[in-house]
Task: inverse folding
């Protein structure tokens, strides 16, 4: 079976989620690989959500928020804008390709842009392949585990 | 009536936890007065077989310090779990990996390769590497197997309570041990499983005496590169301090002495990853809304991974670096 990326998308309630809705009502086609999670603001996306998504089997994480200057909460998306490069730096150090995470600005009227972003990001993750976290779970039957001392 | 039994064990650790137990000074007398100390490899001569010979659940309290990185550590963790009523993950190593878990930035092969073949101070002419089993004329010699990933105690056995810190502060050890004695003496109910003893549930900033204002940072710097104002929040002065992502209980000793918090008391219960929390904390003090400038400011943070996860790699969300 070919690899279908699993992508978690955190979409801000005021712009991007509405933009996604617009793409839907306008019958625009885009890959079904993104599981959307509505958050009130891109500033609500704690970096722990991203790490947790990867831990639970996501191959990519997408964060969409209002364009800079357009935040419903005035500066929530600026907080997101500052967090994400640092999160990407951390991911890179954690051995996870930084391109598995992407931040995009999608407004409520940009259904077409949402379609583009999803299509492009899905292809990008498909090219990167599945993310496998190795040696995460403790296996009490593993060969290295036992030795009578 | 026989006294309750106490065991103290060190797995992959530096011995600092054992020292901090001795640092409770004369209170140690109250401890040995109340408990029968049955197992403490750091301080008394006793063999693992003596522990194996004990009845299950015959040790009332085991303070287990050190991370789990070899088959020996694991065997003793299982053994002590079997023999103990209450097993406490004592110190940062047992709790979330601590310094030994920095090995999770690498893997077994690269660590052995560096230590036995590449380290500059090495004189290993024959390129010898330790083997779990070696045949000699007298028979077979074995040493414990070295794991690819360092684990915290609760990842391999069930843990009842946690006492955080690297090492746990002596006054907090006294509080915790005296509380246990009180519970046992007066037949009080035990706290719920998973309780963190000897610490509070707030962040280190809660105990920090430094003055805090609005933080606007244009560049981060390392502590030695700057003369800091002793009364002002270190983060405000551009020094990466793990206070916001660290449990309090230590009395904010490092920050009082002019050093930033390094995070040894681990996570407060309301957060689940120290590194992620630090990303949030630092991102909110960066004074810029321009992506390029933000990138520049972020690049002044020395080694984010090693700084944020210095004490919590094994217990973090991803547990190790993917190598």
Result:
């Amino acid at each position: 079976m070919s690899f279908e990326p699993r992508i978690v998308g955190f979409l801000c309630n005021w712009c991007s989620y509405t933009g996604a809705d617009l793409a839907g009502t306008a019958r625009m086609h885009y890959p079904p690989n993104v599981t959307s999670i509505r958050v009130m603001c891109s500033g609500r996306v704690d970096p722990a959500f991203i790490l947790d998504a990867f831990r639970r089997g996501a191959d990519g994480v997408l964060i969409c928020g209002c364009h800079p200057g357009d935040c419903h909460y005035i500066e929530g998306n600026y907080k997101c804008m500052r967090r994400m490069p640092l999160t990407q730096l951390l991911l890179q150090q954690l051995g996870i390709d930084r391109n598995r995470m992407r931040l995009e600005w999608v407004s409520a009227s940009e259904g077409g842009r949402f379609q583009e972003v999803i299509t492009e990001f899905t292809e990008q993750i498909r090219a990167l392949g599945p993310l496998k976290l190795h040696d995460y779970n403790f296996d009490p039957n593993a060969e290295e585990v036992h030795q009578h001392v | 009536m026989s006294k309750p039994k106490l065991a103290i064990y060190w797995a992959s650790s530096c011995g600092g936890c054992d020292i901090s137990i001795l640092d409770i000074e004369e209170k140690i007398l109250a401890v040995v007065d109340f408990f029968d100390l049955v197992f403490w490899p750091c301080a008394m001569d006793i063999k693992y077989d003596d522990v194996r010979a004990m009845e299950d659940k015959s040790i009332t309290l085991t303070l287990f310090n050190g991370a789990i990185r070899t088959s020996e550590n694991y065997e003793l963790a299982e053994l002590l779990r079997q023999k103990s009523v209450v097993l406490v993950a004592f110190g940062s190593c047992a709790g979330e990996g601590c310094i030994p878990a920095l090995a999770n930035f690498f893997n077994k092969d690269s660590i052995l390769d560096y230590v036995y073949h590449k380290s500059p101070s090495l004189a290993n002419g024959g390129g010898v590497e330790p083997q779990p089993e070696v045949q000699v004329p007298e028979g077979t010699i074995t040493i414990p197997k070295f794991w690819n990933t360092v684990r915290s105690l609760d990842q391999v056995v069930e843990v009842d309570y946690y006492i955080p810190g690297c090492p746990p502060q002596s006054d907090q050890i006294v509080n915790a041990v005296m509380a246990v004695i009180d519970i046992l003496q007066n037949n009080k109910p035990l706290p719920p499983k998973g309780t963190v003893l000897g610490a509070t549930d707030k962040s280190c900033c809660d105990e920090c005496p430094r003055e805090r204002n609005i933080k606007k940072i244009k560049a981060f710097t390392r502590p030695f590169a700057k003369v800091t104002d002793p009364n002002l929040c270190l983060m405000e002065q551009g020094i990466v301090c793990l206070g916001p992502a660290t449990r309090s209980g230590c009395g904010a000793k490092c920050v009082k002495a002019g050093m930033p918090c390094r995070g040894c008391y681990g996570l407060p219960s309301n957060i689940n990853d120290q590194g992620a929390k630090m990303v949030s904390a630092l991102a909110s003090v960066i004074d810029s809304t321009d992506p390029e400038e933000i990138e520049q400011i972020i690049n002044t943070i020395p080694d984010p991974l090693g700084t944020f996860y210095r004490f919590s790699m094994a217990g973090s969300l991803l547990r190790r670096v993917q190598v």
